[in-house]
Amino acid sequence: MNHDHDHKACSDGELPAKAPDTGRRQFLQCGTLAGAAAAFGSTIGAASLAHAQTALTRSTISHYHIPASDKTIHWGYFSKSLKELVTVESGDFVTIETITHHAYDDYERMIKGDPGAESIYYWDKTRKGVNRRGAGPMDASLFGRGAGEGLGVHICTGPVAVKDAQPGDILEVRILDVKLRPCANPKYKGKSFGSNAAAWWGFHYKDMIEEPKEREVITIYEVDAAGERNCAKAVYNFRWVPQTDPSGVLHKTIDYPGVPVDHSLVQENFGILKNVRVPIRPHFGTMGLAPAEADIVDSIPPSYTGGNIDNWRIGKGATMYYPVAVPGGLLSVGDPHASQGDSELCGTAIECSLTGTFQLILHKKAALAGTALENLNYPLLETQDEFIVHGFSFANYLAELGPKAQSEIYSKSSIDLALRDAFRKMRHFLMTTQGLSEDEAVSLMSIAVDFGITQVVDGNWGTHAIVKKSLFGVDEA
Amino acid sequence: MNHDHDHKACSDGELPAKAPDTGRRQFLQCGTLAGAAAAFGSTIGAASLAHAQTALTRSTISHYHIPASDKTIHWGYFSKSLKELVTVESGDFVTIETITHHAYDDYERMIKGDPGAESIYYWDKTRKGVNRRGAGPMDASLFGRGAGEGLGVHICTGPVAVKDAQPGDILEVRILDVKLRPCANPKYKGKSFGSNAAAWWGFHYKDMIEEPKEREVITIYEVDAAGERNCAKAVYNFRWVPQTDPSGVLHKTIDYPGVPVDHSLVQENFGILKNVRVPIRPHFGTMGLAPAEADIVDSIPPSYTGGNIDNWRIGKGATMYYPVAVPGGLLSVGDPHASQGDSELCGTAIECSLTGTFQLILHKKAALAGTALENLNYPLLETQDEFIVHGFSFANYLAELGPKAQSEIYSKSSIDLALRDAFRKMRHFLMTTQGLSEDEAVSLMSIAVDFGITQVVDGNWGTHAIVKKSLFGVDEA
After folding, report:
1. How far is B93 from chain A (nearest CA, A)?
2. What value does the mean pLDDT take over residues A63-80?
3. A211 to chain B: nearest residue by CA?
4. What CA–CA distance (Å, rounded) separates B39 from B225?
């Protein structure tokens, strides 16, 4: 692994930095917030699933800032062997910068002038800023694409360890804020951009009607950075043509992340999607903990510790609950999206760099008995109004599919299987957290729970089941 | 067929009746509304897909009322051979009463005192109010369940023919109002009730955790009739036990619709789903036109002419567009639901009698060229804010699966196939109605269209794709 973490510890007592541009080149910034926990308790509100179990007795809370750079990211995989960037305590805040792995689709708009993105994407004949991209072999002996073989594609910032986290615990991750990363190129000052790749792994790819079929198309979107219009619009699109990377490897398709797109080779089509505006839903496509079952794990298939769930509801104001599988938990965040539809049909969302602020709350296994989090062995999402469970074709594919799980998962997925899993998880959720019998849970699922298709492009296909909080706790008249 | 339509034509010039209780025993009531078309044009609004093509030049519009009774319903099937109850002109209004096929789960709350429901459900040793229930053989030679064999279960009111409707035309059905049917039993005055059956055809059935497994459970819900609280609450549930119908046939499972449940044989469990309230979403699970491919068609699998789509969004304020397959179109409405979740997981919704008021607009094939309805060969839903297409495992299963389609569909369904179909239909919709290229449509689908699971219990499983109207027609800044 090319993972060279040389982070420094923060000393308490500093005020949180205001994140100046140069801040990204610092490794970590942190500060102490007195009384912040109590304040956040009331912000999150009494409806929060775990609130009642969360007793933050610390008088000071630290706030860390993790900029995105070649030193703070791992590309295309999760790993229990990664050294943590920092160890936080339960209740601490972390602001984490994330960079989209599609930024090199348009260097001018998504990398140029941004030291963090430049350090990550650096690639010349002799050196890559980040060499390993994916969970494959470093010598590219499988496909010859490059180190890691692109078996896993997401640039993930982290991991962040949580003090005392042990397998069996639950880590609650509150997403307090999500901000677009402004374009650093003065030419596009004040704007943000993202890329949507309709790629070979998309659901549409072998089912196209216009010629030439089986084409890959990249659409660049401008995203309202001020947040006032809260929408995205297409700038232009182009068809992928074979690209030779700086190491001399030809990429006929989008088969390796971060390949520089030579725009002198592509035809840029402007004036597309005229008069169309897409409301943005900024969120993190990939967020989760390191799994226990394997060392280096492809970042693409989601699993019981989260990862690439690709649910657009995992945005500002939402809370995720993850089962801890390895000591420290090891939270990583990446695959930032400005917007995505349920199914992520063509293979990607509007892939767009974002910065998130999180609060991490550790729920120890010993304290889970009798609570809503007891026996939670899947990633659970809580929004202001809803609880959402995630079903996958295989709930824990690494354990279920054996030694070849990481390749076999790509040939075994189906939405039918993922619905089966979502059904079982929602039944568990309703029986555990609401104390329902199976008969009550099954009836309620049929009349009031909405099952949707999260994604059909991540190997381990996903569904979700949404139940509204307002159904529960109504006083009998 | 036991279908004995002896309706009388309405004479214009009467005012619409106020639907007194005795009105249900009249066959049809109708009246003339002057200028109503223009008024409705403005109510539906400029955002309506077909509004621009709808030029209602008639100065008077009729309003028909079709009560539900043994004379106005067909049970468990669609058929191009059914004689129409009435022929309306494009622009006319029709109020249609519908009765749930689960009413006999609780006779006291859903049938007693209601002449229409009583006439439909009447069943003694020698006579059934409606003999055929389903598309199977009248002599029950397949399974011995009863006439029609329960191969199709929905009580459908209709059909209504539309003057001049021919194959290739599109029928627009605007749902102007949906009302709960009040309980006619004085004991429950002012209330409405529905039934949810977790049945053998449910997605959960072979995957239960509590004993005894493979049990069928019926939950009776009280639905707020006044509409003030707008929610439903469980009253009690009971496990299905073998029931002998008045003809002497034993029904070990819920295998034939309208079997009287003898409540002296079942254990009623009160106090269930305490403090749980389900917001209601009144809608018609089954609404559509007669298909051309077969004579008597099982009402369960939805298809290109609509039918049992089971999308809870097909409620008040929504508009459906159906391809006309046979002369007159032959619209029938049934399977009324008070609420359903996406997937209808356990096999049914809150099955609850409703009355709908509709306006029917015929779009002639010759006038479709260049409009948003050109080449529409699937059922399209328009709500106030959204367009929704419906994907099925087989878009037109009667044509695709051949002579044995009506039995084979039950063994061939999958959500994966239904998503494939929804993808193709949404692509068609975006390319046709918004003038997008395939590349534009595919990108937009991935970033802004939400794909959900409509139902996994109707043989021909369904998905839907939702796109917001607000995406389109934004002026370039």
Report:
1. 30
2. 98
3. B438
4. 28
Residue B411 CB neighbour total at 10 angstroms: 7
- pLDDT at position B22 is 35
Distance in angstroms (rounded) separating the CA atoms of residues A65 and A67: 6
Q: For residue B205, give both structure tokens.
A: 């059935």
* Distance of residue A342 Cα from the nearest chain B Cα, in angstroms: 4
CA distance B145 to B177: 37
Query: A112 near A353, Cβ under 8 Å?
Result: no
Place B37 in a pLDDT band, splitting at 50, 70 and 90.
Answer: very low
pLDDT of residue B474: 74
Model pLDDT, residue A436 = 97
| In contact, A155 and A66? CB cutoff 8 Å | no
User: Which amino acid type is present at position B362?
Assistant: L
Kindly state whether B108 is in contact with chain A, defined as any CB-CB distance less than 8 angstroms.
no
Closest Cβ–Cβ partner in B273, B341, B350 for A449: B341
Q: Are B59 and B35 in contact (CB under 8 A)?
A: yes
What pLDDT, in 10s, does the model give residues B390-412?
Answer: 999 999 999 999 999 999 999 99
Distance from CA of B313 to the nearest CA of A (A): 12
Closest CA relative to residue A104, chosen from A194, A18, A31? A194
Phi-psi region of B104 (alpha: psi -120 to 50; beta: other; left: phi over 0): alpha
- Region of residue A418 (left: phi > 0; alpha: psi -120 to 50; beta: else): alpha
Residues of B in contact with A279 (CB under 8 A): 448, 468, 470-471
Q: How far is the C-alpha of B425 from the C-alpha of B180, rounded, in Å? A: 33
Written as one letter, the residue type at A27 is F
For A327-376, the pLDDT digits (tens) are 999 999 999 999 999 999 999 999 999 999 999 999 999 999 988 899 99
| Residues of A whose CB is below 8 A from B425 | none
Share of chain B above pLDDT 70, in %: 86
- C-alpha B94/C-alpha A156 separation (Å) is 58
Interface of B with A in 192-251 (CB under 8 A): 196, 198, 202-204, 207-210, 215, 217, 219, 221, 232, 234, 237
Query: Token match 């001049």: residue?
Result: B164
Phi-psi region of A76 (alpha: psi -120 to 50; beta: other; left: phi over 0): left
Please state the φ and ψ torsions of residue A150, each to the nearest 5 degrees: 65, 20
- Residue A104: closest CA among A114, A93, A92, A91: A114
Domains of chain B as residue ranges with CATH: 22-180+282-391 (2.60.120.580), 188-278 (no CATH)
Instruction: Give the mean pLDDT of chain A.
Output: 90
B342 vs A contacts (CB less than 8 Å): 449-452
- Run of H or E residues at B96: strand B93-98
Chain A touched by B471 (CB under 8 Å): yes
Q: Identity (one letter) of the amino acid at B403? A: P
Which of chain A's residues have a Cβ under 8 Å away from the Cβ of B452?
342, 450-453
Residue A288 sits at φ, ψ, to 5 deg, of 170, -175
Whole-number Å distance between alpha carbons of B116 and B109: 14
Q: Which residues of A387-403 are buried (b: 16+ CB within 10 A; e: fewer)?
A: bbbbbbbbbbbbeebee
Give pLDDT tens digits for B175-232: 999 999 999 999 999 899 999 999 999 999 999 999 999 999 999 999 986 656 689 9
| pLDDT for the residue numbered B74 | 98
Instruction: Tell me the DSSP string of A411-470.
Output: GS--HHHHHHHHHHHHHHHHHHHS---HHHHHHHHHHH-EEEEEESSSSS-EEEEEEEGG
The CA distance from A273 to A270, in Å, is: 9
CA distance A304 to chain B (A): 21
C-alpha B243: how far from its chain's center? 27
B473 to chain A, any CB pair closer than 8 A? The answer is yes
ipTM score of complex: 0.91
A453 and B CB contact within 8 Å: yes
